[in-house]
Amino acid sequence: MEIEIGRGKKARRAYGFDDIAIVPSRRTRDPDDVDISWKLGDYRFDLPLLASAMDGVVSPTTAGIVGRLGGLAVLNLEGIFTRYEDAEAQLERIAHLPKDVATREMQEIYSAPIQPELIAQRIREIKDQGVVVAASLTPQRVRKHYELALEAGLDILVIQGTVVSAEHVSADETRPPLNLKEFTREVPVPVIVGGCASYHTGLHLMRTGAAGVLVGVGPGAACTTRGVLGIGVPQATAIADVAAARSQHMLETGEYCQVIADGGMRTGGDVSKAIACGADAVMIASPLARAHEAPGQGFHWGMATFHATLPRGARVATLQNGTLEEILIGPARENDGTFNLMGGLRTSMATCGYQDIAEFNRAELMIAPSLQTEGKQLQTAQGIGMGARGAAAPAPAPSNGHGTPKAPALSEN
Question: Is residue 194 part of a domain?
Fold first, then answer.
């Protein structure tokens, strides 16, 4: 339904995860009978989860851990690990930057050139751990580096940017735009492309032959795109729109393209809502940046945080309070939904009676903003449970060793 913004301008109403609720169906199911696995190309994963290609989240080591747990981690091939042999030293430096110079100093750190030999080395480091290797490149650099990545053993290629379209227009003849439709079909491994946030863009990306489409523009905990550029669509609506595009694409081609919700999820409830809106899997970052193994050492930042001329992200602090295993598959020792995310999804599906992800995509939803606050006054007043707003909340501001407190987390959502 369109709402009039003013004379001559109307807009649709859009919804985020906090605005909706999943409605239980007429049956329930044993959680052990629920199948949350999903397939991408020829690969099947036990967990419908991708760890986002952000330097504070995915290193070759954490990629191996996530892979052994049943998920898929995506390494940023334009990040710290491919610019510096001693990546840990640079990550340590970022973790100790004072808040007022963090963005400026990160721009300097990321100005170092990408080293092709490190691209191959990092992919081999993940490959040697016996897991599926996924890595991301931006549309601007994918042609330059993808062949080297494939030669090193890359299994899944992610072409990722703030917004990626199937039709990029440029008057600069010295920089011909990437033809995604041609490029995606010539790459011999599954390709994931994104982000997008609308039906038409999602459909056009699917028509390129992509195996999966990332859905999300600006919902991440470290992202400031919605403030800097004023663009974005709340995630529940964005996912539902792109899921509708998937259905249209199926009618046109008979091919199923995976819809991957990218960002904006803090809890198992958020993950469950993303799947109920139509996603096949989720890509998360800040929940995993809290892990003791995370390379960000208690900090999290996005891929546009260090943009040379227009940064669109913030370095945010997280409370490191669990392992990757505890965050993803438990056991949970907190009651706010930020641990055992996949267990939360499985239990949500079982409680509503759905056997697999495809069935859960058809769950009934309601507009229910009071879901977060109804009857929760005591939890809110005491800052516990649903009143805690998630364990991704900022850590206390400890000294960074230079007499300057570490920066608190400022989530845009």
Answer: yes
Active site residue 223: yes
Tokens representing 97 are 């930057």
**What was the pLDDT predicted at 412?**
35
* Cβ atoms of 368 and 20 closer than 8 Å: yes
Asked whether the beta carbons of 1 and 398 are under 8 A apart, the reply is no
376-398 tens-digit pLDDT? 889 989 988 888 865 545 555 44
CATH code: domain of residue 221: 3.20.20.70
Of the candidates 83, 122, 223, 290, the residue annotated as catalytic is 223
In this prediction the pTM is 0.92
Q: Which of 34, 74, 15 is nearest to 344 (CA)?
A: 34
| Known catalytic membership, residue 352 | no
Catalytic one of 83, 266, 315, 346 = 315
Tens-digit pLDDT profile for residues 143-165: 999 999 999 999 999 999 988 98
Number of domains in the chain: 1
* Alpha helices (H) along 232-317: 235-253, 268-276, 286-289
Q: Is 27 exposed, middle or buried (0-12, 13-18, 19+ CB in 10 A)?
A: exposed
Neighbours of 203 (CB within 10 A): 22
Q: Which tokens in the block code for residue 4?
A: 């009039």
| Tally of helices (H runs) and strands (E runs) in the chain | 16, 16
Residues 344/31, Cβ–Cβ less than 8 Å: no
